[in-house]
Amino acid sequence: MSRHHSGRRRRDFSKLNNRYVAKNYLKKWPLVIRDIKKNYDLQQTEVEFLLFVYDYEFFTVSHTATALKRSRTKLYERTVLPLKQRGWLETIYHGKEVDKYVNQLFHESSNHEHRLGLTQKARMMVQRIYRKLEGGEPINL
């Protein structure tokens, strides 16, 4: 049926051919966020933070605040600390226990900030989000 056929005008929608739009994962993003909020008690900013740090082995709050262009203090108070208290983040290296070798890796001599990382629970959550976006797992509302 051609694009301008009169029968097409009566439809509510018409999808484009797959060769024009191969992947449209973010179309399901609002539904996935509602599912995660309802079933796992996470807010959207917390989910976005987990997605951002998913590919890090460990990170500091200062680094992520700089990368996300947010205030370090507010990021820690509003996002990192609640996630840490609920078991989504864990301390990988304590800042005061970091030795000279680790300081040389970071080219800093006075950085005594904790290195944080995602817990296994958080890594599984991020993988679940990706599966839901790709259609491999159902979205439970």
Descriptors:
mainly alpha, 141 residues, 6% strand, 6 helices, two-stranded antiparallel sheet, Arc Repressor Mutant, subunit A, single chain
What report would you give on this structure?
- There is one protein chain.
- This protein has 141 residues and is mainly alpha-helical.
- It has a single domain (29-134), classed as Arc Repressor Mutant, subunit A (Orthogonal Bundle), CATH 1.10.10.10.
- Helices cover 46% and strands 6% of the residues.
- Helix 3 crosses helix 4 (72-85).
- It is elongated, with a radius of gyration of 21 Å.
- The two termini are 36 Å apart.
- The model has no long low-confidence stretch (mean pLDDT 85).
Give the tally of β-strands.
Answer: 2
Order of helices and strands: HHHHEHEH
Q: Radius of gyration, rounded?
A: 21 Å
Mean pLDDT: 85
| Beta-strand fraction estimate | 5-15%
- Report low-confidence residues grouped into runs of 5 or more: none
Global shape: elongated
Going by CATH, the homologous superfamily would be Winged helix-like DNA-binding domain superfamily/Winged helix DNA-binding domain
Spatial gap, N to C terminus = 36 Å
Strand order of the largest sheet: 1-2
| CATH class bucket | Mainly Alpha
CATH architecture: Orthogonal Bundle
Structure class: mainly alpha
